[in-house]
Design a protein that fits this description.
The complex is a heterodimer of chains A (about 475) and B (about 425). Chain A is an alpha+beta fold and about 475 residues long. Chain A has helices at about 10-15, 15-25, 35-40, 60-75, 125-135, 155-160, 165-170, 205, 240-255, 265-275, 295-310, 325-335, 335-340, 360-375, 400-420, 440, 445-455, and strands spanning about 30, 55, 80, 100, 110-115, 120, 140, 175-180, 190, 215-225, 225, 230-240, 260-265, 285-295, 315-320, 345-350, 380-385, 390-395. Chain A has 17 helices and 18 strands. Chain A is globular and about 70 Å long. With about 425 residues, chain B is of the alpha/beta class. Chain B is globular and about 60 Å long. The chains are: A alpha+beta (about 475), B alpha/beta (about 425). The interface of A and B includes residues 36, 124, 150, 340 and 343 of A. The complex binds iron/sulfur cluster (2 copies). One iron/sulfur cluster binds near residues 35, 48, 51, 80 and 82 of chain B. One iron/sulfur cluster binds near residues 81 and 92 of chain B.
C-alpha cells in the first residue's frame, strides 16, 4: 500500500456531522457514506493502490460543487476530485479523511459554436462525447487519450492528457480555451473563454495539468477542429524492438510528421489482436501504426515516403489499411491496448515516461534487459512519435513480492527516462504513482517553488494533497 | 485485479470461476462509458466496474448479500454492453449470474418483491398461465390510473399493467410440438425453440419463422418436451428452475439430434439465444455437460442460420426504410450484428441505425417490470433515437424489445416477419397502416 498523509483525527471523529452537512447540500442520491457502497470508490485505474474515503459526493451543478467546497473548507476537510476514475497514476486515489467529489453527473454539453469552432461542456462529459456531439457537422475534438471512450474532459484538463494524435494536434493544453473552476474556498471563477489570449497571467496554462491540486474544474471550453479530408493507417512489422525504434527515429528525423506514430511489441500485438481482430502481424516482434491524413493523393504520397523509410529497416511486412472499417479496427486494438493486456496478465503497472526519440533503440534495449533481471514480463505500447513510453510491467497482485518487484522495475524505467534526457510523465500525470520519484527530476528548490504555487491556491493543502509531491514535506 | 479468496472458498467451482473473471478485470473503467445505468445515473456503483467491485466484496467476505449490493446488482440490465466494450475479455455475464444466485440464496427481499418475483417466475415461462394473466391484466389496465404513490410496489404494478397488450392474440393454429415439413426438396432440418412468453405475446413471429424456413426447404421441428429456455428464472438467480428448464430442452433436442438429426437449434428471441448458447457453461459441472455443450454449439439465431443457408426475396422491394434496433442479447450477448442488417438489405429494405445503438431499450427480460423508472427512461431515449432516423418501421430480433418499444409512434416488428414477407409471406399486421410500393 502506498503511504498516505496522516488522516486528520478530528475530521474522522466528526464523520457523522460532516456527512449530515453534505446531505443538506445535495439531492438524496448525491451523497454516499455507507461503508459497503464506498468501497468501489477506493481506487481508480491504478487498482494496486486503494483507500476508502470518508464520503463520496456526486454534484450535478457548479453551484453544488461550490457549496460542497465551501463546506469542506469551513470544516477543514480534504477533497479529492474524481472524473471517470480511469487515471493510471492514481490521480483519484482517496484519503481516509477525504470527501471524493465525483463529477460524473455533470455530463452535459452546454454549447457548441461552429462558427467560432468551440464547445462548452461540463467536466463529466467523456472525451469522445465531445467528438460525438460535433462529428455530424464534420468536426472533432483532437486530443485522444486511449481511454477516450470513458475518461472525462475535467480529468483530461487536470492531467493535461495527450493521445495518439497529439503528435499532430498537441495535448489538452493546446486545445483548451477556457475553464469554469471552483476554488478551495468555494468561489466560482471563469478563466479564458471562446477567444485565444486573455490579458494577465496565463491562468489556463497554470491550471492545466495541475492534477486537481489547485481548483476543481466544472466546465471546459474546448477548441473543436474540422475533420481532415481523409486519413489512413498503415502497419509496419519488424524483427526486433530496437529495429522498430530506429525506424521511428528515422521517420521523425526525415521531417515527415504523421498524425500518429504508435509502437507495440509482441505481447501487446497478441493481446490487442485477440480483442480487436484488426489483422495485426502476429509473427512480428514489434509493430508500428502510422497514420497520415489529407486528400487521397496526399495520403498516397506520404505513405509512399514512409514506406521507403521503413523498407530500409527490413520490415517483415508493410500493410496499408484498405477501408475505414480496417482503420477503425486498427485503432480499436491500439486504444484498448492497456485493458487487452489484462488477457495475458492479471495486473500491470503502466509507466508513462518520455524520452528523446533518438534514444528509443537504446532505451528499449535496456528495458528488455531489466525485464530479464527482474524476471517480470513487459508489454511495450506507446506513442513513439513523441517519445512517450508506456511500458506495461506485468505482475500478479495476489503475490505481494511480485508487486514490490514491479514497483522497483517501474522506478528504474523512469530513472532511465530522466537519465537519457527525458521526463517522468508524458500524459498520465504524476499522481500518487510517481510522486516519490519527483526528486529524481526536480531539485528541492524547484519542488519548493511548485509547493508555493499550490499554497497560494490552497493554503490549507486541502485539495488532493497526497499527490505530486514526495510525501515527507507535503504537510508544509 | 487482486482478489482475496481463501483456498477453501476457491474449492467451490462457482467461486473459482468468478475469481478467474475478477482476475481478468484490470479496473480500467472503459466499460463504464457504455453502461446504460451509468450513463443515466452517473454513479460508479451503477456501472459494471462498480458492480464487479461490489460482487467481489460480497463473494470474498462470504457474508450474506446486503441491501446495498442487491440494489445495484438489481439495477443491472444484463444487457452485456460492458462485455462488448471490455478490452480484457471479462465475462461479466458469468459473474453477475453467480452473484444473482448468491443473492437469491442469502438475501431476504421485502414481501411485495418476493411476491412479484415468484409470480413472474411462475407465469412467464408457462404459455397457458401467461395468456390467462395477460387477459386479466388487460381487463385491469384501466385501474392503473388509480394506483397511487411513487413507492416501488406502486410503480411496478402500474408498469405491469401498462405492459399488457391492448389485444391478447389467440393461440396460433401451429402452437405445440410437431414437425413442419420442408416445402420442396429438404435442404436441412432444425429444431425451433418455440419459446414461452413470445408465443403468447406475438404468435406471428413463430409462424413467420416456420413459414420462411419451410419455404427455404428446411424441416422445422418443435420438439416434444422442450419449452422455456430458462433465461427468465436464470436472470432472477433462481438456479434450480432455470436448470430444470434447460435440462428439459437439452434432452429434447439431443433426442432429435440423435434421431433424425439437427443442423441447428433455431432461436428467434435473442434473449433466449444468449442463454441457450451458455448451456455448456451452466452445466459445466453436471453429468449433462457434453450434451449441453452440443446444444450450445447447435444454437443459432434465426438470422445467423438464414445467412448461412442463403436468403433471397421473391417480392419487389417495398420502398420502406427499416430502423434496425439491435437487441442487446443479439449484439452484446451473441455478438451477432452484421447478419440481421445484411438480410434486411438483401430483402430490399433501406436499413438505418439509431444513434446510441449500443444502449439497451430497457426491456431486459423482467427488468421493465422490476425497475420501471430506469426502464422507462431508457425506452424514451431509445424511441427518440429511433424516431430521429425517420423510418417507416422498427425491426428487432427479440420479443422483449418489441413489447418494450410498441405503443410509440412507429410500428414495431420482428426482423423475421419482414424477411418472410419479402419471401412470399403475408405483410406483418403491424404494417397495416404503412403505405408501401
Ligand atoms: S472494461 Fe473490462 S477490464 Fe476494464 S474495468 Fe470494465 S470489466 Fe474491468
Ligand atoms: S450488463 Fe449492462 S447494465 Fe449491467 S453492468 Fe453491464 S452494461 Fe451495465
Amino acid at each position: 500500500m502506498i503511504a498516505q498523509p496522516a488522516p486528520k483525527r478530528d475530521v474522522l471523529a466528526r464523520r457523522d456531522s460532516i456527512v449530515a452537512g453534505l446531505r443538506a447540500l445535495l439531492p438524496e442520491t448525491g451523497v454516499i457514506a455507507e461503508a459497503l457502497r464506498l468501497k468501489p470508490y477506493e481506487t481508480d485505474g491504478l487498482s494496486a493502490y486503494r483507500q476508502v474515503p470518508l464520503a463520496v459526493v456526486l454534484p450535478e451543478t457548479t453551484e453544488q460543487v461550490a457549496a460542497v467546497m465551501a463546506f469542506c473548507h469551513r470544516e477543514g476537510v480534504r477533497v479529492v476530485p474524481r472524473g471517470a476514475g480511469t487515471s493510471l497514476s492514481g490521480g483519484a486515489l482517496p484519503m481516509e479523511d477525504s470527501v471524493v467529489v465525483g463529477l460524473m453527473r455533470m455530463n452535459r454539453i452546454l454549447d457548441i459554436d461552429y462558427a467560432d469552432r468551440c464547445a462548452v461542456v461540463q467536466a463529466g462529459v467523456t472525451n469522445i462525447g465531445i467528438t460525438q456531439a460535433v462529428q455530424g457537422r464534420g468536426f472533432f475534438y483532437a486530443p485522444d487519450p486511449s481511454s477516450q471512450l470513458a475518461c472525462m474532459i475535467g480529468g483530461n484538463v487536470n492531467m493535461n492528457s495527450g493521445g495518439a494524435h497529439c503528435l499532430r494536434y498537441g495535448v489538452t493544453a493546446n486545445n483548451l480555451l477556457g475553464l469554469k473552476v471552483v476554488t478551495v474556498e468555494g468561489e466560482v471563477l471563469e478563466i479564458g473563454g471562446a477567444h485565444m489570449d486573455a490579458a494577465g497571467y496565463d491562468w489556463l496554462g497554470l491550471l492545466t495539468g495541475s492534477e486537481g491540486q489547485l481548483v476543481v474544474v466544472t466546465e471546459v471550453t474546448v477548441r473543436i477542429l474540422r475533420g481532415p479530408e481523409g486519413a489512413r493507417a498503415m502497419l509496419a512489422a519488424f524483427d526486433s524492438n530496437e529495429i522498430a525504434g530506429a525506424c521511428v527515429d528515422s521517420i521523425i528525423a526525415s521531417g515527415i510528421i504523421p498524425v500518429a506514430l504508435e509502437f507495440m511489441d509482441r505481447p501487446a500485438i497478441h493481446a490487442c489482436e485477440a480483442f480487436a481482430h484488426a489483422g495485426y502481424p502476429l509473427d512480428a516482434e514489434a509493430m508500428l501504426i502510422i497514420e497520415v491524413e489529407g486528400s487521397v493523393a496526399e495520403q498516397d504520397d506520404l505513405l509512399e515516403k514512409i514506406s521507403q523509410i521503413c523498407r530500409k529497416f527490413d520490415p517483415i511486412s508493410l500493410k496499408i489499411s484498405q477501408s475505414a472499417e480496417e482503420s477503425l479496427a486498427i485503432w480499436k486494438g491500439r486504444k484498448g491496448a492497456f485493458g487487452a493486456v489484462g488477457r495475458i496478465s492479471p495486473d500491470y503497472l503502466c509507466m508513462d515516461g518520455t524520452i528523446p526519440t533518438s534514444r528509443l533503440p537504446e532505451v528499449l534495449r535496456r528495458i528488455g534487459e531489466m525485464s530479464m533481471s527482474y524476471n517480470l514480463q513487459v508489454a511495450n505500447i506507446f506513442h513513439a512519435g513523441d517519445g512517450n513510453l508506456h511500458p506495461l510491467i506485468m505482475f500478479d497482485a495476489n503475490d505481494p513480492a511480485s508487486f514490490e518487484k514491479a514497483e522497483h522495475f517501474g522506478a528504474d524505467i523512469l530513472r532511465l527516462c530522466v537519465e537519457v534526457g527525458g521526463c517522468l510523465t508524458g500524459e498520465h500525470g504524476v499522481g500518487v504513482e510517481k510522486r516519490d520519484l519527483m526528486g529524481v527530476q526536480f531539485s528541492e528548490t524547484e519542488l519548493e517553488q511548485m509547493r508555493r504555487v499550490k499554497s497560494a491556491f490552497d493554503p490549507g493543502w486541502l485539495l488532493n494533497p497526497s499527490k505530486v509531491f514526495p510525501l515527507k514535506a507535503d504537510a508544509a | 485485479m487482486q482478489t482475496n479468496f481463501t483456498l477453501a472458498q476457491l474449492a467451490d467451482p462457482d467461486t473459482a470461476a468468478s475469481n478467474q473473471v475478477l482476475r481478468t478485470c484490470v479496473h480500467c473503467g472503459f466499460c463504464t462509458a457504455t453502461c446504460p445505468t451509468f450513463v443515466l445515473l452517473g454513479d460508479e456503483l451503477d456501472s459494471p466496474r462498480g458492480r464487479i467491485y461490489l460482487i467481489k466484496d460480497m463473494l470474498e467476505s462470504g457474508r450474506p448479500a446486503t441491501e446495498e449490493v442487491v440494489r445495484h446488482v438489481d439495477r443491472c440490465l444484463s444487457c452485456l454492453s460492458c462485455m462488448t466494450t471490455c478490452p480484457s475479455g471479462v465475462n461479466y455475464m458469468h459473474l453477475v449470474d453467480h452473484a444473482r444466485v448468491r443473492i437469491e440464496q442469502t438475501y431476504r427481499r421485502p414481501w411485495h418483491e418476493r411476491g412479484l418475483r415468484a409470480l413472474l417466475a411462475t407465469v412467464l415461462p408457462r404459455p397457458g398461465l401467461m395468456r390467462a394473466a395477460l387477459i386479466g391484466a388487460r381487463l385491469a389496465r384501466p385501474l392503473a390510473a388509480f394506483i397511487p404513490g411513487r413507492s416501488m410496489p406502486a410503480q411496478r404494478l402500474r408498469a405491469l399493467l401498462a405492459l399488457a397488450p391492448a389485444h391478447v392474440p389467440s393461440p396460433s393454429a401451429i402452437e405445440g410440438a410437431r414437425v413442419h415439413a420442408a416445402i420442396g426438396p429438404r435442404r436441412g432440418r432444425v429444431a425451433l425453440l418455440a419459446g414461452c412468453a413470445q408465443q403468447v405475446l406475438d404468435p406471428a413471429i413463430n409462424e413467420a419463422t416456420i413459414r420462411l424456413l419451410t419455404r427455404l426447404g428446411v424441416e422445422v421441428v418443435v420438439a416434444r418436451g422442450a419449452g422455456c429456455c430458462g433465461a427468465l428464472t436464470h436472470h432472477m438467480g433462481r438456479h434450480d428452475p432455470a436448470m430444470a428448464s434447460a435440462r428439459a430442452n437439452i434432452e429434447a433436442w439431443c433426442r432429435e439430434a440423435d434421431g433424425e438429426g439437427l443442423d441447428a437449434v433455431i432461436i428467434n428471441a435473442s434473449g433466449c439465444g444468449t442463454t441457450v448458447k451458455d448451456y455448456g457453461f451452466m452445466f459445466r459441472t453436471d453429468p449433462l455437460r457434453a450434451q449441453a455443450e452440443r446444444v450450445s454449439g447447435l444454437a443459432a439465431d434465426i438470422t445467423e442460420y438464414l445467412a448461412r443457408i442463403g436468403y433471397a426475396p421473391t417480392r419487389a422491394a417495398p420502398g420502406l426504410t427499416v430502423a434496425y434496433h439491435s437487441a442487446c442479447s443479439l449484439q452484446h450477448g451473441q455478438q451477432v450484428t452484421a447478419q440481421p442488417k445484411a438480410l434486411l438489405r438483401q430483402a430490399g429494405f433501406t436499413v438505418v441505425e439509431p444513434a446510441e445503438g449500443h444502449l439497451c431499450c430497457g426491456s431486459a427480460g423482467t427488468y421493465n417490470m422490476m425497475q420501471p423508472e430506469i426502464a422507462g427512461r431508457l425506452r424514451a431515449r431509445k424511441l427518440a433515437n429511433l424516431e430521429a432516423t425517420r423510418p417507416d418501421v422498427v425491426a428487432a430480433g427479440n420479443i422483449g424489445c418489441l413489447t418494450q418499444l410498441a405503443g410509440g409512434a412507429l410500428p414495431v416488428v420482428h426482423s423475421v416477419q419482414l424477411l418472410d414477407w419479402m419471401a412470399g409471406g403475408p405483410a406483418p399486421a403491424a404494417l397495416a397502416g404503412v403505405s408501401h410500393d
